[in-house]
Amino acid sequence: MTRYRALVRPKIGLVLPQWEGRLFGPPEPPALRWSELQSMALAAEDAGLDSLWLVDDLLPEGDPPKGFWEGWTLLAAVAAVTRRVEVGHLVTANTFRNPALLAKMADTVDEISGGRLILGLGAGGDEYEHRAFGFPWERRVARFEEALQIIIPLLREGRVDFQGEFYSIRECDLRPRGPRTTGPPVLIGALANARRMMRLTAQYADMSHGFLAFGRSTPAQVAPLRDALDAACLRVGRDPATLARPMAVRVELELDGPIGHMFDTEEPIRGSVDEVADTFWRFADEGIAHLMLAVSPESHAAIEQIGRVIQLMDRGRPA
Description:
Elements: E1 11-15, H1 34-46, E2 51-54, H2 71-81, E3 86-89, E4 92-93, H3 99-113, E5 117-122, H4 127-133, H5 140-157, E6 159-163, E7 168-173, E8 186-189, H6 195-204, E9 207-211, H7 222-235, E10 246-253, E11 269-271, H8 273-285, E12 290-296, H9 300-314
Parallel strand pairs: 1-2, 1-12, 2-3, 3-5, 4-5, 5-8, 8-9, 9-10, 10-11, 10-12
Antiparallel strand pairs: 6-7
């Protein structure tokens, strides 16, 4: 049920296409080169978008599997060439990196960006790429819970000493420090039915990323995830209003050229500039203050059209 009528537009971000082919399709055409991704990032910033996002996959399972540019290397480059937009991942796979090193990387990218990083974290989600690159797959949530007990104190306090089942971090100092003495805000990705991940989100996150991008991207889908997060916050004694709720969604624009579909059964946001703007407002009515868009087609023309949506929304919501 809609909770209120939003009058302030949500932030609008773009997921940069760093993969071969379509995200969930054959590995053709080839992945965009850095020069092309840089051009898209700058175009998005010029068009008025508020954030840019990458994913942290390496070689997810497929027939054949398809490759992704490595997410943290690419994020540092995006941070260096942009000036205003927030930057982050949806979301970093904890299993790919030592958590103390990850905190160090995050603070460094926050320095490069001038304090624009949102640190997206998750437990890791594809078994094939874990096996392919030699990363541990078993007990990912248990590993993630330990990792948060390292990453959060390092970023917030600058020091941690931790001994667990999976990680041993001894007298680790985070030096030098980036532009924010308590580090970047932390976003955790969790599904509504993942009770343990919901608990960790309620305990540690500043933001909780909802996953609608690969299925039905409709405002009606928000309520179950919102209610699950509210309940998780109450179980750990946290005010649910203190947990921000960004959301990743799919958008299919009315433009000439091929449209890429992630799933045959998906239901992306479709329509004209006015129709897309209206749908974004309805997400805001559900308490979503930041939308991250996976856009089809993946083109400069699509970025320009999203820019027109933002311009329309910035004029105010129609009565």
